[in-house]
Specification:
Layout lengths: L2 H12 L3 E7 L8 H10 L5 E4 L10 H12 L4 H12 L7 E5 L1 H7 L1 H11 L3 E4 L10 H7 L3 E2 L1 E3 L5 H10 L4 E4 L12 H14 L4 E4 L5 H8 L4 E4 L1 H9 L7 H17 L1
Parallel strand pairs: 1-2, 1-9, 2-3, 3-4, 4-5, 6-7, 7-8, 8-9
Helix pairs in contact: 2-4, 2-12, 3-11, 4-6, 10-12, 11-12
């Protein structure tokens, strides 16, 4: 069983919801990323989404765009993420890790080489923002053969017919984008999220996880009432940006932000 599937099974048995933090690998420098990952787990992370820095992150708002710029300015490449996950796995063999990013860096390496390397170091899933399931006929089977889950996005504007296609191809969990727009945009409405998740539950048994607009414990708890998982990115990446010149101060801030969300969700 994939670590992602196992984690959701454990959470379901406990009556708890998944807390899934996102950080951009290599921000503010590649030497800090693994420490941040461990800090997030200590604060209550169930799954970690590790962002692959890219020069044109079109789905992301200014916060994550700037994080990509900081990571790229320090020379962070996709192949460096394999080393990060390998190091993380030396002391954490259970927390699922999902690589989240865009197709271009993967194509530069090659589908098979990417899947082999990701699987070998202990990656569990891949979310490629700009590869819809209709275009994943080659990549998807390569990932599946190496035990890597193909994770897809569903938006508020996604039609039921298209959502059914996405659900049929998805693995691990479904990432529901709660807002129209880019990451870090306006506040979400939990009732509206619940209304959009209802038809998806008729289409799939995949856990439904909600991202975009999760800012604090209150918003995380509200979403946890209607979803199987809560994904938080910009709220954490903002803290990294605020202390980019003092990296030692970042891990405690990440733990404070995520810890508040964990406590609110569990309450």
């Amino acid at each position: 069983m994939n670590r992602i599937d196992q984690r959701f099974a454990e959470l379901k048995a406990q009556g708890r919801k998944a807390l899934i933090p996102y950080i951009t690998a290599g921000d503010p420098g590649p030497e800090h990323t693994v420490g941040f990952m461990h800090a997030l787990v200590e604060a209550g992370a169930d799954i970690i989404e590790l962002g692959v820095p890219f020069s044109d992150p079109m789905a992301d708002g200014p916060v994550i765009q700037k994080a990509c710029e900081r990571a790229l300015s320090k020379g962070t490449r996709l192949v460096d993420l394999f080393d990060m996950v390998r190091e993380f796995r030396r002391t954490d063999s259970t927390t699922p890790v999902v690589l989240m990013g865009y197709l271009n860096p993967i194509e530069r390496i090659g589908y098979q080489a990417f899947a082999d390397a990701a699987s070998d170091v202990g990656v569990d899933g891949v979310l490629t923002v700009d590869m819809p399931p209709e275009e994943a006929e080659e990549f998807g089977p390569v990932l599946k053969a190496r035990g890597l889950a193909s994770i897809f996005l569903v938006a508020p504007t996604t039609s039921n017919a298209r959502a059914a296609t996405i659900c049929a191809h998805g693995e691990g969990y479904l990432y529901y984008v709660s807002l129209k727009g880019v990451t870090g945009s306006a506040s979400l409405n939990a009732e509206d999220v619940a209304n959009h998740l209802a038809p998806l539950r008729e289409m799939t048994e995949l856990p439904l996880c909600v991202g975009f607009g999760i800012r604090d414990g209150a918003s995380a708890a509200a979403v946890a009432q209607v979803a199987d998982g809560v994904i938080v990115g910009s709220a954490l990446v903002n803290r990294i940006a605020d202390s980019a010149d003092d990296p030692a101060a970042i891990a405690p801030q990440l733990k404070a932000v995520l810890g508040e969300m964990r406590r609110a969700m569990d309450a």
